[in-house]
Design a protein that fits this description.
The structure is a single chain. This protein is mainly alpha-helical. It contains 3 helices and no strands. It is 40% helix and 0% strand.
Length: 109
């Protein structure tokens, strides 16, 4: 995520992850006892490309895949790059087999 207002340090991200997990549980999701933990929070920057609002080839591929396979509408600046990162991390075995949530909010909050 690219922003100039939200704190994205590991502790802040952990708080957001815990709030998201609580919301999912409140809506009936069974997370099989999974609980976000500080040692599982990491940030990745390899998929940013040339920067904000600059599409990437991997992002374009992820955008097309999301649309055709899942009916998701992504955009090039944030969500396509984020999904590209997840797809690559999964394909290279770097997600450690745990649950992964791709949350499409259509906004920064």
């Amino acid at each position: 995520m690219v922003n100039d207002r939200l704190k994205l340090d590991p502790a802040s991200l952990l708080g957001l992850a815990r709030r998201s997990a609580a919301l999912l549980r409140a809506r009936g999701a069974d997370l099989n006892g999974a609980e976000p933990a500080l040692d599982t929070i990491r940030t990745e920057t390899a998929w940013l490309g040339n920067g904000y609002a600059h599409p990437t080839r991997a992002g374009d591929h992820a955008l097309t895949r999301a649309s055709t396979q899942a009916g998701l509408t992504l955009e090039h600046t944030y969500t396509a790059k984020a999904l590209a990162a997840l797809l690559d991390l999964d394909a290279t075995g770097r997600l450690d087999g745990g649950p992964v949530v791709f949350l499409q909010t259509h906004g920064p909050r």
